[in-house]
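Intended use. Records like the one below are meant for learning the mapping from a protein sequence to its folded structure. Do not use them to infer anything beyond what is encoded.
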Amino acid sequence: MGFKYLLVVTCFCAWFGSLAVTTSSSDGLLRVSLKRRSLDINSLNSAKIKEVGHHLKANAVYLKNYLDAQYFGEIGIGSPPQSFRVVFDTGSSNLWVPSSKCVLSIACYFHSKYRSKLSNTYTKIGTPCKIPYGRGHIPGFFSQDNLRVGEIIVKDQQFAEITKEGPLALLALHFDGILGLGFQNKSVGQVTPVWYNMIEQGHVNQKIFSLWLNPDPMAKIGGEIVFGGIDWRHFKGDHTYVPLTQKDYWQIEVGDIILPNNPTGLCEGGCAAIIDSGTSLIAGPTKIVAQINHAIGAEGYVSYECKNIIHNYGDSIWEYIISGLKPEIICVDIGICSHNRSSHTMNDAFETRTHNESWGESRTKESPLCTFCDMIVFWIQVQLKQRNTKEKILKYVDELCEKLPNPVGQTFIDCNNIATMPQITFTIGNRSFPLSPEQYMLRIEEGCSTVCYGGFVSLDVPSPQGPLWVLGDLFLGAYHTVFDYGNLRIGFAEAA
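Structure written out for the chain above:
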């Protein structure tokens, strides 16, 4: 059974703007626009075609952008269509919206609810289900009805009617539900996803969909998703295509992540990366995120356990590495890690700001000291490859112990330093995909003041599933993305 990892992003469960507007145009595309709201600190903390010719079938939906963190569009369920705002989420596979039977949940009263009695194409199924959300599940049952996406009607689409939304945090969500664009083998109840039915019913004749997110806070249109084609206006140059590494998720392999002139080391041999439009930020291994925090001057939390290890054992670790001892046994040899490090596993859960599905992360049951020791060994190895001196390396590692990503709060950046902050570059398909400071951070206006947040959070997934990156909306805002289902690949080009 595969695992689905869930990323905690507590700071972007934020309020959305108004409904999307659907329009059609002469190029045969249907677009549903996204709107943006101004953000305040209280709301932040409360939530957590190549050109398509006329002979091709393509359907475009304009999206609304809220805070560069949530993008949603409008769909209709039933006949006549009942309108819902949904996140088009490549990290999940089910369609779900609140049900009229959701009467004991306060959150349901703040969202549109599906009323089967008002639809003349409704078919009762009634099978109970539990949709992964946050650190648990939200209950509901399956139904079937016609679905309007843009200008097309997907007939007999099965979806989940949610009967209890549970967490009060859901009150802050201005989208009503989720339209999953993932794979069927990850669909709860093995329900056929919307995208599969679009293909099966002949609504598209190219098995691709493409995504453009607009991070411009002044723009009326927050993005666009095109089913069955690519809108050439939204990217520059050619797409770089890379194959999927598994058929469970939109998952690819990425190479090393590069700081100013220096590799971070961990992904030199390749790391997994899930391309997830249902996640706001960019999540990756703590070993790398700490290096990024240090390079961009982001605040982190100070671990005195980490600093004590480097002060008390730094010389010994250095000598072990220089002598050629295998890195994985160094922390065992000095007595910080146990000899049997992988005999037990535990489940951990993470929460995205939209689909919030359980990725089912597994970790070894080791002490925090062991984890810090492993990171220190890794950081010293990376610095040695750059031919730095012992004194400089140990000082740098000690500083990294002060830049660990905060697991429960936001990572602050000095807004005055943005102009001097470095690019962070991902390597995909042997090509470089840099992110500028404006692309990997969020600037929040609050009255006369401005607060800036870093866009990187930690997600530690052990082998064989990890190391793992989740590239969310901050990355997708920089690069127009093609999800090629027919050829099981993903393409990236610079967004225009």
